Amino acid sequence: WKWNESQADFYRYVKDLIELRRSEPAFSRTEFAPHHAPDVRWYHRSGHLMNTGDWSNNTERGLCVHWLGKDSGGKTPDGQPLTGNDMLFIINPHSTTRDYVLPEVGDKPGKWERVLDTDLHQPFTAGMAFPIRENYNAAERSVAVLRFVPDRNDS
User: Fold this and answer.
1) Where are the beta strands (DSSP E) in 33-76?
2) Contact 72, 33 (CB under 8 A)
3) 66-77: per-residue pLDDT in tens?
Protein backbone atom coordinates (compact mmCIF):
# COMPACT_ATOMS: atom_id res chain seq x y z
CA TRP A 1 0.00 0.00 0.00
CA LYS A 2 1.50 3.31 -1.04
CA TRP A 3 0.70 6.26 1.24
CA ASN A 4 0.44 9.82 0.07
CA GLU A 5 0.79 12.78 2.46
CA SER A 6 -2.95 13.29 3.03
CA GLN A 7 -3.40 9.61 3.91
CA ALA A 8 -0.48 9.82 6.33
CA ASP A 9 -2.03 12.90 7.98
CA PHE A 10 -5.38 11.15 8.32
CA TYR A 11 -3.71 8.04 9.74
CA ARG A 12 -1.92 10.18 12.39
CA TYR A 13 -5.19 11.96 13.18
CA VAL A 14 -7.11 8.70 13.78
CA LYS A 15 -4.19 7.25 15.75
CA ASP A 16 -4.14 10.36 17.97
CA LEU A 17 -7.94 10.17 18.46
CA ILE A 18 -7.61 6.57 19.62
CA GLU A 19 -4.81 7.55 22.01
CA LEU A 20 -6.90 10.41 23.41
CA ARG A 21 -9.82 8.04 23.96
CA ARG A 22 -7.59 5.56 25.78
CA SER A 23 -5.76 8.15 27.87
CA GLU A 24 -8.76 9.96 29.35
CA PRO A 25 -10.99 8.08 31.81
CA ALA A 26 -13.82 10.52 31.05
CA PHE A 27 -14.14 8.76 27.69
CA SER A 28 -14.33 5.29 29.27
CA ARG A 29 -17.76 5.60 30.80
CA THR A 30 -20.03 2.59 30.97
CA GLU A 31 -22.93 4.55 29.44
CA PHE A 32 -23.55 7.90 27.83
CA ALA A 33 -25.15 10.31 30.25
CA PRO A 34 -28.32 12.21 29.33
CA HIS A 35 -28.46 15.99 29.70
CA HIS A 36 -29.55 15.77 33.35
CA ALA A 37 -26.74 13.46 34.56
CA PRO A 38 -24.52 14.89 37.33
CA ASP A 39 -21.22 14.03 35.61
CA VAL A 40 -21.96 15.84 32.33
CA ARG A 41 -22.76 19.53 32.05
CA TRP A 42 -24.14 21.14 28.91
CA TYR A 43 -23.35 24.82 28.30
CA HIS A 44 -24.68 27.40 25.90
CA ARG A 45 -21.89 29.13 24.00
CA SER A 46 -22.46 32.24 26.16
CA GLY A 47 -21.30 30.23 29.20
CA HIS A 48 -24.55 29.49 31.05
CA LEU A 49 -25.92 26.01 31.64
CA MET A 50 -28.33 25.00 28.89
CA ASN A 51 -31.98 25.52 29.73
CA THR A 52 -35.20 24.37 28.04
CA GLY A 53 -35.29 27.43 25.79
CA ASP A 54 -31.72 26.81 24.65
CA TRP A 55 -32.47 23.19 23.78
CA SER A 56 -35.41 24.22 21.60
CA ASN A 57 -33.69 27.16 19.88
CA ASN A 58 -33.24 26.07 16.25
CA THR A 59 -30.94 28.96 15.34
CA GLU A 60 -28.30 28.36 18.02
CA ARG A 61 -27.06 24.81 17.69
CA GLY A 62 -23.53 25.09 19.04
CA LEU A 63 -22.76 24.08 22.61
CA CYS A 64 -20.11 22.96 25.06
CA VAL A 65 -20.18 19.58 26.78
CA HIS A 66 -18.23 19.36 30.04
CA TRP A 67 -17.37 15.79 31.10
CA LEU A 68 -16.33 15.74 34.74
CA GLY A 69 -13.29 13.66 35.60
CA LYS A 70 -12.50 13.74 39.32
CA ASP A 71 -15.41 13.71 41.75
CA SER A 72 -17.87 12.95 38.97
CA GLY A 73 -19.43 9.84 40.46
CA GLY A 74 -18.88 8.15 37.11
CA LYS A 75 -17.43 4.67 36.73
CA THR A 76 -15.13 3.02 34.18
CA PRO A 77 -16.23 -0.18 32.36
CA ASP A 78 -14.60 -2.29 35.09
CA GLY A 79 -16.57 -0.46 37.82
CA GLN A 80 -13.75 1.74 39.12
CA PRO A 81 -14.41 5.42 39.93
CA LEU A 82 -13.37 7.90 37.26
CA THR A 83 -10.29 9.82 38.35
CA GLY A 84 -9.22 11.56 35.16
CA ASN A 85 -9.33 15.12 33.90
CA ASP A 86 -12.32 17.33 33.31
CA MET A 87 -12.79 17.53 29.53
CA LEU A 88 -14.68 20.07 27.46
CA PHE A 89 -16.04 19.60 23.93
CA ILE A 90 -16.79 22.77 21.98
CA ILE A 91 -19.06 22.01 19.05
CA ASN A 92 -19.64 24.69 16.42
CA PRO A 93 -21.88 23.42 13.60
CA HIS A 94 -22.40 26.91 12.16
CA SER A 95 -21.03 28.22 8.87
CA THR A 96 -19.36 31.10 10.74
CA THR A 97 -16.77 31.35 13.47
CA ARG A 98 -18.30 31.71 16.95
CA ASP A 99 -16.99 32.54 20.42
CA TYR A 100 -17.66 30.07 23.24
CA VAL A 101 -17.22 31.12 26.87
CA LEU A 102 -15.10 28.58 28.76
CA PRO A 103 -16.93 27.43 31.89
CA GLU A 104 -15.73 27.39 35.45
CA VAL A 105 -14.95 24.05 37.10
CA GLY A 106 -16.65 24.43 40.46
CA ASP A 107 -14.54 26.81 42.50
CA LYS A 108 -11.22 25.42 41.24
CA PRO A 109 -8.74 27.92 39.80
CA GLY A 110 -7.04 26.79 36.60
CA LYS A 111 -7.09 26.96 32.83
CA TRP A 112 -8.48 25.00 29.88
CA GLU A 113 -5.72 23.51 27.73
CA ARG A 114 -6.39 22.71 24.09
CA VAL A 115 -5.97 19.04 23.23
CA LEU A 116 -7.64 18.99 19.81
CA ASP A 117 -9.10 21.47 17.33
CA THR A 118 -10.36 20.10 14.02
CA ASP A 119 -9.79 23.48 12.36
CA LEU A 120 -6.01 23.33 12.81
CA HIS A 121 -3.72 21.84 10.19
CA GLN A 122 -2.24 19.73 13.00
CA PRO A 123 -5.42 19.07 15.03
CA PHE A 124 -3.55 17.67 18.03
CA THR A 125 -1.61 20.82 18.81
CA ALA A 126 -1.70 20.66 22.59
CA GLY A 127 -0.41 23.03 25.17
CA MET A 128 -2.15 26.33 24.47
CA ALA A 129 -4.04 27.35 27.61
CA PHE A 130 -7.14 29.52 27.88
CA PRO A 131 -8.41 31.21 31.08
CA ILE A 132 -11.76 30.31 32.60
CA ARG A 133 -14.62 32.61 31.54
CA GLU A 134 -12.65 33.76 28.45
CA ASN A 135 -13.77 33.13 24.88
CA TYR A 136 -12.58 30.26 22.73
CA ASN A 137 -12.87 31.22 19.07
CA ALA A 138 -14.28 28.13 17.34
CA ALA A 139 -14.01 28.07 13.57
CA GLU A 140 -16.98 27.18 11.41
CA ARG A 141 -18.00 23.52 11.48
CA SER A 142 -15.35 22.53 13.98
CA VAL A 143 -14.93 20.63 17.22
CA ALA A 144 -12.40 21.47 19.89
CA VAL A 145 -11.50 19.36 22.93
CA LEU A 146 -9.95 21.01 25.98
CA ARG A 147 -8.62 19.56 29.24
CA PHE A 148 -8.96 21.40 32.54
CA VAL A 149 -5.61 21.97 34.21
CA PRO A 150 -5.97 23.09 37.84
CA ASP A 151 -3.48 25.54 39.27
CA ARG A 152 -0.57 23.65 40.83
CA ASN A 153 -1.64 24.43 44.39
CA ASP A 154 -5.20 23.15 43.72
CA SER A 155 -4.68 19.66 42.28
Assistant:
1) 40-43, 63-67
2) no
3) 988 765 566 666
